[in-house]
Every structure is written in C-alpha cells, then in structure tokens.
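Dear colleagues,

As part of the handover before I leave the project, I'm documenting each prediction I ran so the next person doesn't have to rerun anything. This entry is a single chain, and its sequence is reproduced below.
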Amino acid sequence: QVRVAESGGGLVQALASLRLSCAASGRPLPIVAMGWFRHTPGPEREYLASIRWSRGNKYYADSVKGRFTISRDTDKSMIFLQMNDLKPEDTAVYYCAVQRGGADNYDTWGQGTQVTVSS
C-alpha cells in the first residue's frame, strides 16, 4: 500500500518562512503527480500547487504564486513546499496528495501538518 506523510509545519510570525516535506512510501509506487492542498475551517480543501512526476512541470494557484515553491526529489519520492512571506491567512492544515499510476485524480492523502501564522 502507498503511504503519505507530511512534516514541517509549525507556529511562525508573519513574513517568516517554512519548508514543508512530504514523503510517499510503498512498493510499487508509480507516481503521476503530487500536490499540496490546505484546509481552513471551510468545507473544502484549497488547491495550492502540484508537480508532474516525470518532467517536473509545476502548477500554482494564484493565491500562492510568487510566494510558494514546489519541488520534488524523485530518488526519495518526496515533494517540498517552500513557503515565504507567510501571512495570517495562510494559517491552515496543509495536506500532501499523490496521484498514482492508473488513477484519474489524487487518491492518496496524508494526515496533514498544521501551519499557524501570527500577526
């Protein structure tokens, strides 16, 4: 089975930076894409960024473009989210997800890591 685990969240002040990590494990592990989402008290998770596994194409939501950077380590089956210039509205639980080979969308999710930004 495939497992996903996020780490790197914490409590920081506005304008600070955090680097989130996500590790996917399990064999076999064909990966189509991995992405980052976040969930505030609202009913839906917000898409933030994603990366295609084969060529590293990156995609960003407008809300984080220019501040957040997604990257991957193919040897370790990991992705990262470098978050700069954090704002209080970035406070949320951040989730990592994997689109596995043969799936049409993200089908494997981590438990999330809390990011809290104080003003």
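The chain has a mean pLDDT of 95. DSSP finds no helices and eleven strands in the chain.

All the best with the project,
I.
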